[in-house]
């Protein structure tokens, strides 16, 4: 019996395998025969032959087509392939529900992926017949996948020469892919760097044989080819190649071999010939003959030719050399272009060397080079607009190459002698005309600070002047530090451009600059997207230059520059814009419980969008994964409050949210909130997450809002009032009004005045910060008595400050500049420090010494006293020079001049550094350290004894003598020193770290520069440069790092202890354990590395253990103990009926694994196709092996009963025979029927004379698809891995 499964995606779910039992009809009773038995058909009737191929019209009598054989047969686009998978090679053998198991699922998946149609049928011997139908490509892909997924895979290797592998792979791997598809196998070819020549093939036995055969065919074909390498002198290669490689091409065509000659630029003598052996041999003989002939007949001569003329002899792409070779048969050998040699060698037959030499000299002198002197500024005028002037010359004389070099006062001409002379004459005439008639230039001295204003934004101003007056204006770069502006062009245009530039400078000198304070957060808004908004302002005020600070500077100053009136108008316009921005940037934070955020947003954002549009505000909600509950509303104040009320209303409607207000004095709000909100946050967390909202600072409101669940709101209210009561007992607060300009005077210099008041009263006095809205409000906090006393003292001081007086004093004219320079910085400081006192000095140029002071009486007196102190300092001022090498100046200044600023403030002196002399020294900055690497080799600093001060080394200190000396000492203390640290060369790379991270960390941590010598020098010294204190700390840090590295090295040495032990390879799998479990545990327990031998190693018994000596020894003992236990084990065979194996093993080996764990044994079942299918091997200790065998025999006995019952039942369930009478089918009697006659035909081929009928019992004539014995079981563990 056989069953068929036709698998399609439509019928897969309901399909069942099996064929319908065929009914036997035509019987009328016992002993009757079929009605048609009387007639026996002939062989031709029963098996009519197919029509003859190539005879289209024979049977029908129709004439053959007039097209004859020109019409090619149309191939079917759909093909069918049938192949067989024997039982022993089937991957899935569960036959209980054929058509529904894993095989069916795999086939369905393959059909969906490839588009092919697959039919499965099960033969009697349980083998699998597979029919695949579809397009050729789909069928081939489906077949490959079926073989890989339904058939067990084997593997084999085939060895072919390594050089043949690339032919198996083919171009872009196409040949290999085709071979894998054709044979349904996987072919693994070793990598080029792998010495192995073995190619591994994985697949079915049939596929492996096909692939092996194809690979050997490819290799055999390549064996017929040959490669020959000839080493011939490089000088004779041109004769073998011929002019333009014609000779070698002809040779390749004649012989059929491929000839590869290295190019002239490659210094190789080897010529490679490949192809068929006979062709290669013929080509080699021909090449040798040419070589021998030329070697015998040729001679050489050497000539000297200027290096500059070599390129003319070589010609474009070497064409000239090839032309000489073609014309004379002489090879010209040129020295390399990067060589200084001028010697050229000619090689050829003696009678041909003369003509060749003549051609070489002719080519060398065919081109001449001439230089014409012309001022560099004239070059672009010589070239002309868009190259017009020079274009006329090049069109007239196309073979002349004219080259202009920037910054050089010469023009190079190159080309044929006559044409170069003509071009030279024309250019000289252009130069003469330009210099004497048409061109002029002038230089104007303009202060460098005006240069960028002359240029204008994106060069607008300077470009206008250039276009208007047809001149060229050269403004020096800032780095040149030059004031000379050069104007070149038409004489009249030059004068007019000069006049306009001078007028622009005069206007700029009379311009006014105004600084506007604008918070940096508004800068981007004022500028607008892509500068659109600020462009409108600039268009409105075109004469005003508006400069915004760089965002990285975090500055609020916007500078306006231009005519006075325009600057004032622009400032008012910008202030109005800023006022609108401030009004619209009011912000409110509304705490809303997280679970209600989605309701506030609404479906598709409908709610939040509506609120935004109706209130004209910006509303920002926290992200979903954020822990924040705060919603931020931005816009005008009234609009923000309206949006807040609407959002809170949504929350109230959704939950039982209660809101209450508590009256707490505003002065206590800050103390109740606590540092960074810690106190109020603790109350909110303690009361179940209620929200407590304090009014905004400066609003004056006492109302504090508490919002949340009803019970928690009451609890929070009680806690808040209790905390406020505690704060009020100890905190009495009074507020005092005073003009902001008085605040600095009240505080005093260095806080001296306010400190005296605090010390006398014990009260705390708080002045407003620059960000506070109430700038006049002074707060006094403390005990009531102390606060009242401090209030009284401050009120007296403020009252005195309100009495404005005017006074004057005499100040020597020579000191006036000190007070008014730097835009009156000293006067501004006096006004800030002494209550806004106004100090007026006489105009510049006046001889008056009278200085007027106006302000509060106390402030005026204090300011007068301070001015006299400053004058005293100026009169007693001295200048001290300190000689410090220029290379240290940057280190002394510190980051952004911080160190110098500190010294000038501390010692009240002025420090002036000299101009840099770039030729004197070079600075190499060190990131983030503020230090400079030294220019000397290895970082050595020149000894002071050898130091000769130069002008660029002198630093000048001005101030009082005693303070100058203190400042001088402070400067000298900042001079960096260099010290050597002994560090072994082996440790340098560890100190440097990956990509320099280690040494960079040390330099940043200690603010020093660390120099490590080059690796090739192998020095044991590291140099540390910086301030003395920093260098000392860095040395200690470096030595500490060295100690750590040495300890690591010692530890590595200890860990590298190694022991090799010999263990029989048969025990290795047991020592490794399942998935490496046993060996991994040993490695983990003893902290060691254990290496087993590779497959190809000679000594397969050696195991290497590496780690600490003690741990290695313990691991060795553990392995030795494991081996001892394994040696005590025995193996016994037990014979179990193969039909019970699957039941004993269980699903996915679960039952057998449990059994092995229980008895501590290893049980091995036979492989499919084994000679002894019933032999099971049990390995373990003798006692456990006996117990396991007894248990297995008991299981076999139980399972055999079940198997016997199943087989008996199956015998009764078999369908009746098709032709026999058994089984009672159709009411036939067994005794009356006898054996069936079978199908009989007349005139069969085997009945003819000399032919013999086939023997149906012969296995040769009728081979079976498989054996009739019970199916062999595949191991439940899967295919054996070798």
UniProtKB/TrEMBL annotation:
* A molecular function GO annotation: mRNA binding
Which keywords describe this protein according to UniProt?
A: Acetylation, Cholesterol metabolism, Coiled coil, Cytoplasm, HDL, Lipid metabolism, Lipid transport, Nucleus, Phosphoprotein, Repeat, RNA-binding, Steroid metabolism, Sterol metabolism, Transport
Q: Where in the cell is it found?
A: Cytoplasm; Nucleus
Leader sequence range is none
- Per the UniProt record, one Pfam family is KH_1
Database matches in InterPro entries: KH_dom, KH_dom_type_1, KH_dom_type_1_sf, KH_Vigilin_N
Stretches assigned to the K Homology domain: 152-220, 224-292, 297-365, 366-432, 438-506, 510-579, 584-652, 656-725, 730-799, 803-872, 876-976, 977-1043, 1055-1124, 1128-1197
- Biological process GO terms, please? cholesterol metabolic process; lipid transport
Where is region (Disordered) located?
A: 1250-1282
Stated role? Appears to play a role in cell sterol metabolism. It may function to protect cells from over-accumulation of cholesterol.
- Any idea what this protein is called? Vigilin
Native species = Poecilia formosa (Amazon molly)
């Amino acid at each position: 019996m056989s069953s068929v499964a036709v698998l399609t995606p439509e019928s897969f779910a309901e399909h069942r395998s099996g064929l319908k039992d065929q009914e036997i009809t035509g019987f009328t009773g016992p002993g009757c025969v079929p009605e048609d038995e009387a007639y026996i058909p002939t062989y031709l009737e029963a098996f009519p032959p197919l029509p003859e191929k190539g005879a289209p019209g024979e049977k029908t009598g129709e004439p053959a087509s007039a097209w004859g054989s020109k019409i090619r047969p149309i191939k079917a686009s759909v093909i069918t392939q049938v192949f067989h998978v024997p039982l022993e090679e089937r991957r899935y053998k569960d036959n209980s529900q054929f058509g529904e198991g894993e095989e069916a699922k795999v086939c369905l998946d393959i059909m969906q992926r490839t588009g092919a149609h697959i039919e499965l049928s099960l033969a009697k011997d349980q083998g699998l017949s597979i029919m695949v139908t579809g397009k050729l490509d789909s069928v081939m892909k489906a077949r490959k996948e079926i073989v890989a997924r339904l058939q067990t895979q084997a593997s084999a290797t085939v060895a072919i020469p390594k050089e043949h592998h690339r032919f198996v792979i083919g171009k872009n791997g196409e040949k290999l892919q085709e071979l894998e598809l054709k044979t349904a196998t996987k072919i693994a070819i070793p990598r080029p760097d792998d010495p192995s020549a073995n190619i591994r093939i994985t697949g079915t036995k049939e596929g492996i044989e096909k692939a092996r055969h194809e690979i050997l065919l490819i290799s055999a074909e390549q064996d017929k080819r040959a490669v020959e390498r000839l080493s011939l002198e490089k000088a004779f290669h041109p004769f073998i190649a011929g002019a333009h490689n014609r000779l070698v091409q002809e040779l390749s065509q004649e012989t059929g071999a491929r000839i590869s000659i290295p190019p002239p630029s490659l210094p190789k003598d080897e010529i490679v010939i490949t192809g068929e052996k006979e062709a290669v041999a013929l080509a080699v003989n021909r090449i040798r003959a040419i070589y021998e002939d030329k070697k015998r007949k040729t001679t050489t001569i050497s000539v000297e030719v200027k290096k500059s003329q070599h390129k003319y002899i070589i010609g474009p792409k070497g064409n000239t050399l090839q032309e000489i070779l073609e014309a004379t048969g002489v090879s010209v050998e040129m020295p390399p272009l990067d060589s200084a040699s001028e010697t050229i060698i000619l090689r050829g037959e003696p009678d041909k060397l003369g003509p060749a030499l003549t051609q070489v000299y002719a080519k060398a002198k065919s081109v001449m080079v001439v230089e014409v002197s012309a001022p560099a500024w004239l070059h672009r005028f010589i070239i002309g607009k868009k190259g017009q002037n020079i274009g006329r010359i090049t069109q007239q004389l196309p073979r002349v190459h004219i080259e202009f070099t920037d910054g050089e006062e010469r023009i190079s001409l190159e080309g044929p002698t006559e044409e170069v002379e003509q071009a030279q004459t024309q250019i000289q005439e252009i130069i003469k005309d330009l210099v004497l008639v048409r061109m002029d230039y002038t230089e104007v001295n303009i202060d460098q600070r005006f240069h960028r204003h002359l240029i204008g934004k994106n060069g607008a101003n300077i470009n206008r002047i250039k276009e208007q007056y047809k001149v060229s204006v050269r403004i020096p770069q800032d780095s040149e530090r030059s004031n000379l502006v050069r104007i070149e062009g038409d004489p009249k245009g030059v004068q007019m451009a000069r006049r306009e530039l001078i007028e622009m400078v005069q206007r700029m000198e009379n311009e006014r600059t105004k600084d506007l304070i604008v918070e940096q957060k508004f800068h981007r808004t004022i500028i607008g997207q892509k500068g659109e908004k600020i462009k409108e302002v600039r268009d409105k005020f075109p004469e005003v230059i508006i400069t915004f600070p760089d965002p990285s500077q975090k500055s609020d100053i916007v500078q306006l520059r231009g005519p006075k009136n325009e600057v004032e108008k622009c400032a008012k316009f910008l202030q109005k814009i800023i006022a609108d921005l401030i009004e619209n940037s009011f912000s409110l934070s509304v705490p809303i419980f997280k679970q209600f955020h989605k309701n506030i947003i609404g479906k598709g954002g409908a709610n939040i969008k509506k609120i935004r549009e109706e209130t004209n505000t910006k509303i920002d909600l926290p992200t979903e994964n954020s822990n924040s509950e705060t919603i931020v509303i931005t816009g005008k104040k009234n609009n923000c409050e309206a949006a807040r009320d609407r959002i809170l209303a949504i929350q109230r409607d959704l939950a039982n949210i209660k809101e209450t207000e508590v009256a707490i004095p505003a002065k206590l709000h800050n103390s109740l909130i606590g540092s960074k909100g810690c106190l109020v946050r603790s109350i909110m967390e303690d009361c179940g997450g209620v929200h407590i909202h304090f009014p905004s600072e400066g609003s004056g409101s006492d109302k504090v809002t508490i919002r949340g669940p009803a019970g928690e709101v009451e609890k929070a209210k009680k806690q808040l009032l209790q905390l406020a009561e505690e704060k009020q007992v100890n905190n009495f607060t009074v507020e005092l009004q005073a003009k902001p300009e008085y605040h600095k005077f009240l505080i005093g210099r260095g806080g001296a005045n306010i400190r005296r008041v605090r010390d006398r009263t014990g009260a705390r006095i708080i002045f407003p910060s620059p960000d506070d809205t109430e700038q006049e409000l002074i707060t006094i906090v403390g005990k009531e008595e102390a606060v009242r006393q401090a209030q009284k003292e401050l009120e007296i001081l403020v009252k005195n400050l309100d009495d404005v007086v005017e006074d004057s004093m005499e100040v020597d004219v020579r000191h006036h500049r000190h007070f008014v320079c730097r835009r009156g910085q000293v006067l501004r400081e006096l006004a800030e420090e002494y209550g806004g006192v106004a100090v007026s000095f006489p105009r510049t140029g006046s001889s008056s010494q009278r200085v007027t002071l106006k302000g509060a009486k106390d402030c005026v007196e204090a300011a007068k006293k301070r001015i006299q102190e400053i004058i005293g300092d100026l009169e007693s001022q001295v200048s001290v020079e300190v000689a410090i090498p220029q290379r240290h100046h940057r280190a002394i200044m510190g980051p952004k001049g911080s160190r110098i600023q500190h010294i000038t403030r501390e010692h009240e002196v002025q420090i002036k550094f000299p101009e840099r002399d770039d030729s004197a020294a070079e600075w190499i900055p060190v990131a983030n350290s503020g230090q400079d690497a030294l220019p000397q080799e290895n970082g050595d600093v020149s000894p002071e004894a050898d130091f000769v001060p130069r002008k660029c080394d002198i630093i000048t200190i001005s101030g009082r003598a005693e303070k100058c000396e203190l400042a001088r000492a402070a400067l000298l203390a900042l001079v960096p020193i260099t010290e050597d640290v002994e560090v072994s060369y082996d440790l340098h790379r560890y100190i440097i770290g990956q990509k320099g991270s280690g040494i960079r960390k040390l330099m940043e941590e200690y603010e020093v520069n660390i120099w490590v010598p080059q690796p090739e020098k192998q020095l044991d010294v590291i140099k540390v440069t910086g301030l003395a204190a920093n260098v000392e700390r860095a040395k200690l840090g470096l030595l500490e790092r060295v100690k750590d590295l040495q300890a690591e090295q010692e530890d590595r040495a200890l860990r590298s202890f190694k022991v090799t032990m010999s263990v029989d390879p048969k025990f290795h799998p047991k020592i490794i354990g399942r998935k490496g479990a046993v060996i991994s545990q040993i490695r983990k327990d003893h902290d060691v590395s254990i290496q087993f031998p590779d497959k190809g190693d000679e000594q397969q018994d050696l195991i290497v253990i590496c780690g600490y000596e003690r741990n290695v020894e313990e691991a060795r003992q553990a392995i030795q103990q494991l081996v001892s236990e394994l040696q005590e084990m025995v193996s016994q065979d037990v014979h179990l009926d193969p039909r019970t194996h699957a039941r004993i093993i269980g699903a996915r080996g679960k039952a057998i694994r449990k059994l092995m764990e229980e008895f501590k044994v290893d049980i091995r079942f036979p492989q499919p196709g084994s000679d002894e299918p019933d032999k099971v091997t049990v390995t373990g200790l003798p006692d456990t092996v006996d117990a396991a065998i007894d248990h297995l025999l008991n299981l076999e006995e139980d399972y055999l009963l079940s198997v016997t019952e199943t087989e008996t039942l199956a015998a009764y369930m078999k369908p009746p025979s098709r032709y026999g009478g058994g089984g009672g089918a159709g009411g036939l009697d067994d005794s009356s029927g006898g054996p069936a006659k079978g199908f009989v035909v007349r005139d069969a081929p085997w009945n003819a004379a000399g032919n013999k009928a086939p023997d149906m019992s012969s296995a040769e004539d009728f081979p079976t698809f498989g054996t009739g014995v019970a199916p062999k079981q595949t191991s439940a563990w899967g295919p054996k891995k070798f």
